[in-house]
Amino acid sequence: MGRGVTLWFTGLPCSGKTTIADRVAELLRSRGVKVERLDGDIVRKSLTKDLGFTKEDRDKNIERVTFVAKLLTRNGVIVLATFVSPYRERRQKTREEIGEFIEVYVKASLEECIRRDVKGMYRKALAGEIKNFTGVDDPYEEPLNPELVLDTERETVEESVHKVLAYLEENGYV
What we know:
Blueprint: E1 5-10, H1 17-30, E2 35-39, H2 40-43, H3 55-74, E3 78-82, H4 88-98, E4 101-107, H5 110-116, H6 121-126, E5 148-151, H7 157-170
Parallel strand pairs: 1-3, 1-4, 2-3, 4-5
């Protein structure tokens, strides 16, 4: 059994974070690996339902998730965390706090993310109905030195998944 680690999937809304992480989780579970998924949409319905989308609330959201990820990682679990987490400084604090941390930049252009948006979030944000929406009226700070870059406009889901699994294998996590 490998050691615990948190893979932190960051990127614009609709870049492909959840799709890729769900598939990685499925494949790791099929190998008998202990895996937990922490997803922005799900966490905001429970652990952080009291928070909004101001910079302070976003940071508090990630702070709470970091705590949970750290506990799981410390106990030998591979954590797949999918959060827009738009601010570099907060992601760096998360890296430092967890220790065993892999930043995975799920890269897609704003135009492509708007095209993929089935929930209509971008449309609402562009119309001013949603405030502080990342990529529209709130910044997304791209990672400077992520361990992995998954370019979801140029590679298939399976290619991205393979890159993640290969990284975990090459670095002794599985």
